[in-house]
Amino acid sequence: MEYNKEKLQLFFLKVEGQHEKINKSVKDIYDACAKPEEKEVVLELIYTLDKYVTEHFKDEEFLAEITGFPKLDFLKKDHEYFRAVYYRLRYHYNYYDENAKDYKYVCMFAIHLAKTLEEWLKFHLKTLDKELVKYLQEKIFED
Ligand SMILES: [Fe+2]
Ligand SMILES: [Fe+2]
């Protein structure tokens, strides 16, 4: 498939930047949840992680697909697995209370989400994401 290498390189850097943000947000959630007055900060961090399961997965899959990454199906399945876990968690905690017009269980949800993501990432980053990054570096940065 034809693609513009320069555009893909920028896109790749965006995806790598997202990885850093995710890892930082996971760490920040633990710190913020230690302080009850940090509810707004925690909500912001939840939003960042929420972006991970939507935007980041989509971006990675786009790059993998357009460059012909051989393990695209595995990558999609692994993302799909985490996405399903994430939606279950979000549904379970239902952390916005419509009646009270306020957030509840914010830290319970945030810590559960951060820990789940942290454990999943330990494997995902070391396997499929790592292979994808290596593949993309060769495919769109070399020659
Ligand atoms: Fe991934
Ligand atoms: Fe990733």
Written description of the protein model:
- The structure is a single chain.
- The protein is mainly alpha-helical and 143 residues long.
- It has helices at residues 5-33, 39-66, 72-93, 106-124, 128-141, and strands at residues 96-97, 102-103.
- The chain has a single domain, classed as Four Helix Bundle (Hemerythrin (Met), subunit A) (Up-down Bundle), CATH 1.20.120.
- 78% of the residues lie in helices and 3% in strands.
- A two-stranded antiparallel ribbon has the order 1-2.
- The mean pLDDT is 92.
- Bound molecules: fe (ii) ion (FE2) (2 copies).
Short description:
With 143 residues, the chain is mainly α. It is 78% helix and 3% strand. It has one domain: Up-down Bundle (Four Helix Bundle (Hemerythrin (Met), subunit A)).
What's the topology here?
Elements: H1 5-33, H2 39-66, H3 72-93, E1 96-97, E2 102-103, H4 106-124, H5 128-141
Antiparallel strand pairs: 1-2
Helix pairs in contact: 1-2, 1-4, 1-5, 2-3, 2-4, 3-4
